[in-house]
Amino acid sequence: MVRPCYCPLFADDASLATALFQALCSQVSGETVYLDVPENNPAAVTLAREAGMKEVFGCAKMYYGPAPRLPENEIFGVTTFELG
Q: Are 10 and 73 in contact (CB under 8 A)?
């Protein structure tokens, strides 16, 4: 079940992320879909472009102190802008 929300897209690799994204999109046919793609994951940017998506607005991550260690290549859609 997919519900209207801003939710993350995490996957082990690009092919799994694409499969998950397509499966989720198939459940909301005719609805506008947004995916907040982190630009530091080139595979995520490619996924969005291949889905025919375009940038609506951009934003930057900022940290107070050192940046946390994250599995950047597994993040295809960010959780929330407020939490990074």
A: no
pTM of the model: 0.83
The parts of the chain modelled with pLDDT lower than 70 are 1-6, 81-84
d(CA 17, CA 43): 9
Query: How far is residue 9 CA from its own chain's centroid?
Result: 5
CA–CA separation, 15 vs 21, rounded Å?
10
Instruction: List strand residue ranges (DSSP E) for the chain, in order.
Output: 9-10, 75-77
How far is 17 from 11, CA to CA, in rounded Å?
5
Residues sharing a CB contact under 8 Å with residue 43, sequence separation 6 or more, in sequence order: 13, 14, 17, 73, 76
Query: For residue 75, what are the β-bridge partners?
Result: 10
Rounded-to-integer distance, Cα 28 and Cα 2, Å:
8
